[in-house]
Write the structure tokens for this entry.
Amino acid sequence: MTGTLAPGDAGIAEAARLLSAGELVAFPTETVYGLGGDARSDRAVARIYEAKGRPSFNPLIVHLPDLVAVEKIAHVGPKARMLAQAFWPGPLTLVLPVRERAGLSPLVTAGLPTVAVRIPAHPLAQRLLRAFGGPLAAPSANPSGRVSPTEAAHVLEGLTGRIAAVLDGGPCAVGLESTIVLADPQPVLLRPGGVPVEALEAALGEPLATGGDAGKPTSPGQLASHYAPDAALRLDATEARPGEVLVGFGPVTGALSLSETGDLVEAAARLFQLLREADRLAGPGGRIAFAPVPETGLGRAINDRLRRAAAPRGVQPATSASHPRGPVGETAKFPR
Ligand code: TXA
Ligand code: MG
């Protein structure tokens, strides 16, 4: 059965022990809960894919406590270093050339010459990484294709019985997955997320390209239909149609609201929680509508997730910031 571990020394020690034994432990980060496993162990990484029901050619993010640990497994180029200095620890993932003797399971990188790395800021994630003493592969701790978890209870809803434990750190502050960037030689945005693009561009002093090749999603998160609730979703709604649960934003009021004051930080933090709540309120065969959210700052990542949640299920993306050299061609329907 899946245990819940309290966020003290004993819970962290137990989580680290389980991970060292090749078990899976979900843990809080400032973005969403991660489904952690030893990134050096083929068996642990294979179990991550199995627990999520995720297609195995999608590479995972490797979590480390600091830049020294990152440099042991990857080459940090000049622009990557600028971003690392500005945004780590924090909700940024950098795609870096992997070192030859990095010691990672090839399942983590899905055979790519690069590895996605993140240094999370959440104090519990930091303490767990240091107690474990190695790289943790961690996708979001939800079944593939479903809404990402921002509380320990969400993790249990989707994965109970499939993982050893969840370390309970309360709700996640950012609420959206990390921004993924390929920094060198030319910076490319691979996924909008917790660090706004404007902030990245300011730190680099140059604009970010968005990854081309919309037909080649590199992960479930890049598929058009992802983050999917059970209910059908309508976007840019200014009022509820009969039978719809409206999630408002700013002046648009509904049964629920992303942020009554129109605050994008609050809206990001509440997004996945409200998708779940609206899904429950709508009931079987129900319908959800979302108020428009501006396409600036975190609004870009919020709209990205909303468009994926609203997309017809099991189809190719209409737009996608996918990695031009990423693994190709996920066309299958995802288990929902
Ligand atoms: O906030 C987050 O990033 C969360 C928390 C738990 O850290 N993690 C997360 O992981 O969202 P996941 O596995 O759901 O997202 C992995 C993303 C995918 O979009 C995948 O394509 C990209 O990372 N990725 C991983 N390795 C890559 C690589 N070598 N090149 C390009 N993209 C890569
Ligand atoms: Mg995910």
The chain is about 30% helix and 15% strand.
